[in-house]
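Annotated sample (chain length 316).
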Amino acid sequence: MAGNETSNARMNAPSPSPSQTPSPVPTPQTLMDRLDQKVFDGLYSRSLVYNTCWEDPAVDRLALQLGPEDSVLVIASAGCNALDYALQGPRVIHAVDANPRQTALLELKLAAIRMLEFEDFFAIFGDGYHARFREIYRHRLRAELSDFARAYWDRYSNWFTSRHGSFYYHGLAGFVARGFNLYFRLRPQLARDIRELFACDNLAAQRRVYDEQVAPELWTPTIHWVLRRQLTMSLIGVPHPQRRLVQAQHPDGIAGFIRDAIDYVFRHLPVAENYFWRVYLNGHYTRDCCPEYLKEGNFLSSKMVSPTASNHIPAR
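Output written by the structure step:
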């Protein structure tokens, strides 16, 4: 049995070793803690949180070495990693999630793999936009879904034809991404520097642009204030107990932890292959920088995933 709790090498800084990590001191819940939890529960129980997965399946592939005798239990999230694991050929994959909107997204992806050709599939989940999505959904996909997923996408099918330009700017994580993109538009020099950063084709140039141009402009008191808010964390699926745990372990709290992680990514890992960050900056993937399940060469293999219930995927 395997899960997808391995950290994302293309996104996050390495976790400190146990000897470096102080044990948090338990503290009683305050009134603000209880309020934060209610806000999180309210958002989580009504919303799609993740429109894409941020855990790196490439790390899992190396660690798990999945084969035809393996059974995999995975948190569904946005379904990207469950579909990646299916390409490795395990016997069965069970994708489960406490939020049924996440499994509704996985169901939609499975239906699209079964019923569509690659060009339409990539437009929907690669570009995040398809001008004919409502027609395709109504005639090709809707009947393939469970009752809950059908009702959900009946209501939110407009996300794939949105004036905001991309499915990846919807849901809670997408709302945060849209907010940061708006902030970058208000800071045109920072926006230009970030574009230059993502255009770098070698690590030395990337590190120089980040250290000299991006970091001094990015890490303002305003950004630190936003990152310290529990509302921001709730919008990206981080409940207050997890935030408090990070705060107890990092000298600069949650904002310092996030800064360290982002510093590591842009100083030590090549952005050319980092589809996790590019999709939120651009609102779409490209065909050469995207999850494995979106690559044309894997599409026929993906079609061998059978129709299933929303929380269970037989692999090929």
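Annotation: The beta strands are 71-75, 92-96.
Annotation: The two ends are 17 Å apart (CA to CA).
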